[in-house]
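Hello,

Our lab assistant flagged a job as stuck in the queue for most of the afternoon. It eventually completed. Since we weren't sure the result was trustworthy after the delay, we are filing this so someone can double-check. Below is the sequence as submitted and the structure that was eventually returned. Let us know if re-running is recommended.
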Amino acid sequence: MDIQLKHEALSLFFPVDALCSSQESRTESVVPDKMPDIGYILDTDTSVYLRRKSTGLGKVFLEGEIHAVILYRGEDDTLQKLQIQMPCSYTLEAAQVQEEDRLRASLTLIRGEGRMINPRKVSVLVETKACAELYRPETVELTSDADGEDLEKQIQELSIPYIASVESKSFVVSEEFSLSSSAPAVKEILGFGTASAVSDQRSLGGKVIVQGSVRFEFRYLGEEDELCQERFSADFSQLMDIPDGVEGSAEILLTPEVAYVEVLPGGSGKDVIHLELHLTAQMLYHGVKTLSLMTDAYSLHHTCAVDQKDLVVRKPGNRTFIRGSAQTLLELPEPAEESLFGYVNFSQPEVIDGKIRLPVQA
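-- returned structure --
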């Protein structure tokens, strides 16, 4: 008996490997001669940026940069800023990696602290976490039907979830912010922080429109040496490519590459703060395709050998928004007169016993 099989091709990406690792980076720095001795350290603000990612020789390579700003009160009672930069690199073993694989990676900050070794020297300790995922493009042929004499068939219509696209796009958010009317002029930049998030995404033809926002916190020294802080936000919108005719949803990971801040004179006499933030949007596009598949076949007059194949697909994750609050009291060695500023770092979420753990450092 001659049987003519009919096939339908499906182009998708298979998850190959998922890797995570953490490490500590340490460095020491000497206070420049023009700056006074350290009386005591007020604050250490740290940021980490993922600059490059690549694969080769059975490994995943991630290169980043750590920026640390130490604020201290000098022995002459002046407020001083010490800037420190150090490289951060990871080499993750990935024996299954191939040249055509797509890489999705992140580099996050777990904690950072600065300590005084002596009045002219400090040490900085920063703990980071790197995560990488590998996806391999493949085209699979699925048997949709068959023509043959005296052939009985079982045809099922199935909706198959799969990863249709793994894409990456770098872009720049460049914005100018005016200080509030009551804010003093900027004498010196003390530090800043940024946080970016995707607020909406929708498909349009062969594109995904990604919309999001950047929160920007700016700390500076005023004209009369007072500590000041301003908060701003800016929206962004980007287009990313997806295969034509594929319906689904996008999962976007935003990673910062580098950030620059400068103070510009404003037209109304108020300082203008210019932020240039380089971001990379890494997208998994989860498609869903409805196919008619032949799942079984037999004949009452002929012997049939059925060859079954397994197709492993990745279902899109469930998105859940949970609001919560946490509060703790910190004991100080001496009574505080006022609160200068505060910040919170969130590291990579972890799944433990079916629950999501989000490490936080304040």
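-- support follow-up --
The delay was a queue issue, not a problem with the job. The result is valid. DSSP finds no helices and 16 strands in the chain. The CA atoms of residues 174 and 271 lie 17 Å apart.
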